[in-house]
């Protein structure tokens, strides 16, 4: 059973990488690109809605958001694009990431969170 879970986790890693690649493809519709960037950013981001140290819920939110986002993304992207992206992700055998990418992702999340706080907490009168 542990081997099966490891295979599923590896499959999700490859799908997130494939989703990132497909989202950057010009043949992918805009709505799918936006969804792909958000889901891949969430999956690769060190920031979670519910931190992973919270028992069960910490991992469950990741599973539901990432798996559901991948499922919806794959339905929105043309099949040839997903086939090519999955082949490229499998060939790379690593998820995209670097310290610079982590900094960029964290900054994007901070800007989004700050903008939402600004809008919803009523700071627009300043």
Description:
This protein has helices at 2-23, 30-44, 57-76, 79-92, 99-120. It is globular. The protein is 74% helix and 0% strand. It has two domains: 2-94, no CATH class; 96-126. The protein is built from five helices and no strands. It has 126 residues and is mostly helical.
Summarize it.
With 126 residues, the protein is an all-alpha fold. The chain has helices at residues 2-23, 30-44, 57-76, 79-92, 99-120.
Attribute tags:
126 residues; mainly alpha; 74% helix; globular
Helix/strand layout:
Layout: H1 2-23, H2 30-44, H3 57-76, H4 79-92, H5 99-120
Helix pairs in contact: 1-2, 1-3, 1-4, 2-3
Helix count from the secondary structure assignment? 5
Helix content: over 70%
- The total strand number stands at 0
How many domain modules? Answer: 2
Q: What is the H/E order? A: HHHHH
**Estimated structural class:** mainly alpha
Largest sheet: none
- Gross geometry: globular
User: Residue-averaged pLDDT, rounded?
Assistant: 79
The rounded distance between the terminal residues' Cα atoms is 57 Å
What oligomeric assembly is this protein in? single chain
**What percent of residues are in strands?**
under 5%
Q: How many whole angstroms does the radius of gyration measure?
A: 16 Å
Uncertain parts = none
């Amino acid at each position: 059973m542990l081997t099966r879970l490891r295979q599923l986790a590896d499959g999700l890693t490859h799908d997130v990488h494939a989703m990132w690649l497909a989202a950057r493809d010009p043949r992918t519709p805009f709505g799918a690109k936006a969804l792909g960037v958000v889901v891949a950013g969430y999956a690769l981001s060190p920031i979670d809605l519910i931190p992973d140290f919270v028992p069960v819920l910490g991992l469950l939110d990741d599973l539901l958001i990432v798996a559901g986002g991948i499922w919806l993304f794959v339905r929105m992207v043309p099949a040839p694009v997903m086939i090519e992206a999955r082949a490229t992700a499998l060939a790379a055998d690593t998820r995209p990431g670097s310290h610079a990418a982590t900094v960029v992702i964290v900054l994007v999340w901070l800007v989004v969170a700050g903008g939402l706080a600004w809008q919803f907490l009523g700071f627009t009168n300043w």
